[in-house]
Write a structure and sequence with these properties.
Layout: H1 9-33, H2 38-41, H3 44-57, E1 61-69, E2 73-81, E3 84-88, E4 100-106, E5 109-114, E6 120-125, H4 139-144, E7 153-160, E8 163-173, H5 174-178, E9 193-201, E10 207-214, E11 220-227, E12 242-243
Parallel strand pairs: 6-12
Antiparallel strand pairs: 1-2, 1-11, 2-3, 3-4, 4-5, 5-6, 7-8, 8-9, 9-10, 10-11
Length: 250
């Protein structure tokens, strides 16, 4: 064995081992701290749970609602902040037979602006049996419906609204969906399912598109598109709102 003058062979071996260990440690750090792909770092169930939590915690955002069915259709834009939201229904055919132009919910109290563009009417609490149908327009109700779901399928990457998203799909009992609008009554839809497609941003883990497809005897598709996350949204009780019963408004 050749030995350089003045170098202890044992010291040279220790130096080689030390350099090798440092290199391995550096490689492990780079792997651990580097970008992790959404494919390997998140199971579909966990990814959906994270996105739902993020959406419910986001300070404010804008949304577009579209409905398509054999009987009616419409499009509505709105804003939401926490559990409060406001949505314009001028282009939504099914909304109050055209008598309501805007719906606003503040602290679960529902206010509707009439078609005159100035009169606001307080109808009551949105979660009650009488006003349960108004939750059809509530983005929070649909997002909350996705909490604690399992059996989520991953359909790969897809771009929506210019944002790269992971598309997920799951089935939920139609009774759970109907409970949004019939105040908890799930008895009318045993054994039927609603197909839900969710587009979650790969960079922000927020829901950018949410689609519910009902394939029963009255097929319909409800689609929410969310954008402008973190927008400073102010949703307040309308001034001079009249009570629904005080002026004969129903």
């Amino acid at each position: 064995m050749l030995v350089r003058e003045g170098v202890n062979p044992r010291h040279g071996s220790l130096l080689t081992i030390a350099v090798t260990l440092q290199f391995c440690m550096l490689a492990c750090i780079l792997v651990a701290c580097g970008p992790r792909s959404i494919e390997t770092s998140h199971a579909p169930d966990a990814l959906l749970a994270t996105a739902v939590e993020n959406m419910l915690d986001t300070s404010g955002m804008e949304f577009l609602l579209e409905k398509h069915s054999a009987y009616d259709s419409g499009q509505a834009r709105g804003t939401m902040r926490g559990s409060d939201f406001e949505i314009g229904l001028e282009r939504f055919i099914a909304a109050e037979r055209g008598e309501t132009s805007r719906l606003r919910v503040v602290d679960e109290e529902a206010y509707a602006q009439l078609s005159d563009g100035s009169t606001w009417v307080h109808f009551g609490t949105i979660g009650t049996q009488e006003l349960a149908a108004l939750q059809l327009y509530s983005p929070q109700a649909y997002i909350a419906l996705l909490k604690d779901r399992t059996g989520v399928a991953d359909h790969g990457l897809e771009t929506t609204g210019g944002v790269e998203c992971r598309q997920l799909q799951l089935d939920i009992p139609e009774g759970d969906y109907r409970a949004i609008v019939v105040a908890g009554d799930r008895s009318d839809a045993p054994g039927r399912w609603v197909v839900v497609n969710v587009w979650i941003g790969t960079r922000d883990s927020l829901i950018h598109r949410l689609q519910f497809t009902m394939a029963d005897e009255n097929p319909a598709v409800w689609v929410y598109e969310f954008s402008d996350f973190g927008t400073d949204v102010t949703i307040e009780v309308p001034e001079s709102a009249i009570e629904a019963s005080s002026d004969g408004v129903h």
